[in-house]
Amino acid sequence: MMTSIIEQLHENRDISDADLKLLIETNRYDRELFQHADIVRKEYYGTDVYIRGLIEFTNYCKNDCFYCGIRRSNHNLERYRLSQDEILSCCENGYKLGYRTFVLQGGEDPFYTDERIYEIVSEIRQKYADCAITLSIGEKPYESYEAFFRAGANRYLLRHETADMEHYTKLHPAEMSLEHRKNCLKNLKKIGYQVGSGFMVGSPFQTTECLIEDLRFLQQLEPAMIGIGPFIAHRETPFNRFKNGNLQLTLRLIGLLRLMFPYALIPSTTALGTADPQGREMGLRAGANVVMPNLSPVNVRKKYELYDNKICTEEEAAECRACLNRRVSSVGYKIVTNIGNVRTLREQHPPKNSK
Ligand code: 5AD
Ligand code: FES
Predict the structure, then answer these.
(1) How far apart are CA 125 and CA 129, in angstroms?
(2) Distance between Cα 322 and ligand 2 center (Å)
(3) CB of 295 sitting under 6 A from ligand 1
(4) How confident is the model at residue 2 (pLDDT cuts 50, 70, 90)?
(5) Which is nearest to 218 in space by CA: 251, 257, 259, 188?
(6) What pLDDT was estimated at residue 340?
């Protein structure tokens, strides 16, 4: 009997570029893809869903990425920074709610010098020895990453955004480069961080070939986490007239990622929940196993608007936690509050015949 593309992908954790293209460009395989993705997800993670508490501590950014609502050229945005004490009280609140991973995310804000980040991370580390500390503060020199690691940070999120050189230049101003970003990811791994990367789906000028390159790049990088979400236009950016990324395509890529990277931590992202009220539930069913609710104080939430209509900007952390419990269990999964094992994608389970 012939094996289908999906069966091959399930079996080998890989298929040819031509087959990837087929799979990405039609909805013909979706049913089978999501079935297999859920089998693999259950095999590796059961029905467990990990939660990561996101603290968006600054919306100042020195970068000017064309897609992003907090880019420096957006002058129509009230900027804010959380103090060290405010950040700590987010952690305290989160800890009580069962969070054991804190994700400090912010724009590339020069106010937070290496010394300041070092101090913040050190204090969190000292108070929460049993928690993982994740940083998501962009591109930094090797030495800075190293210092933060010494302070006690153990994970770092830095999406590559697109692995296609030409596409990268269409999304970013000239002073940014894909090469530099990739180098940062390499450095983070070398230092010993558990690294998360990822890309937007349906960003302007993206082609199927770009997406295939994204997948191939991730195969090389072998990150512990892969975050993807649909591009959503922000009214105050140069991309305000572009159409949003497609929900179904995003789900399809989540399914694909689950089969290519069985161990990956794959968040069902806020962007997915913004694209559709049930987006995050659909993401979980397609193979995702992480949710990253917001722990930031409610009064700053709306100001961290990377794209239009971002959800969950009004709920207190506790309400958010209850809401997510319901959402996750509505599709048959269960939030777990342990720290969550992180294995490098293929180190424990190398692909059977990688080409
Ligand atoms: N639509 C969707 N995702 C976006 N991000 C930034 N701007 C947008 C947008 N307009 C994503 C980027 C970034 C992450 C924090 O948010 O991928 O890495
Ligand atoms: Fe934040 Fe529902 S997940 S309010």
Answers:
(1) 6
(2) 8
(3) no
(4) confident
(5) 257
(6) 61
Q: What is the mean pLDDT of residues 296-316?
A: 94
> How remote is the CA of residue 312 from the centroid of ligand 2, in Å?
5
User: What's the CA gap between 82 and 55, in Å, rounded?
Assistant: 9
Confirm or reject: Cβ of 68 under 6 Å from ligand 1: yes
Tell me what the mean pLDDT of segment 223-243 comes to.
Answer: 98
Instruction: Report in angstroms the alpha-carbon separations of 295 from 68, 88, 171, 338.
Output: 21, 11, 29, 17
Task: Please report whether residue 178 resides in a domain.
Answer: yes
Domain with residue 189: its CATH number is 3.20.20.70
Overall domain count for the chain: 1
The answer as to whether 2 is a domain residue is: no
Say what the pLDDT of residue 343 is.
Answer: 52
Tokens of 4: 């289908």
Name the one residue in this structure whose structure tokens are 């599709």. 331
Contact in structure between 325 and 88 (CB atoms under 8 Å): no
- Per-position DSSP letters for 261-296, written without gaps between them: -TT-B-B--HHHHHH-TTHHHHHHHHT--EE--B-S
Prediction pTM value? 0.94
Residue 68 CA: nearest ligand 1 atom is 7
Q: Which atom of ligand 1 is nearest to the CA of 232?
A: 1
- Which residue segment(s) compose the domain that 115 sits in? 29-345
- 350, part of any domain: no
Convert the pLDDT of each residue in 75-89 to its tens digit.
Answer: 999 999 999 999 999
Q: Which ligand is nearest to the CA of 292?
A: 2
In angstroms, the CA 265 to CA 284 distance is 11
**Which of 65, 306, 311 gets mutated to test ligand 1 (max ligand atoms within 8 A of its CB)?**
306
Domain annotation covers residue 206: yes
Dihedral sign for Cα 100, 303, 74, 84, please. Answer: negative
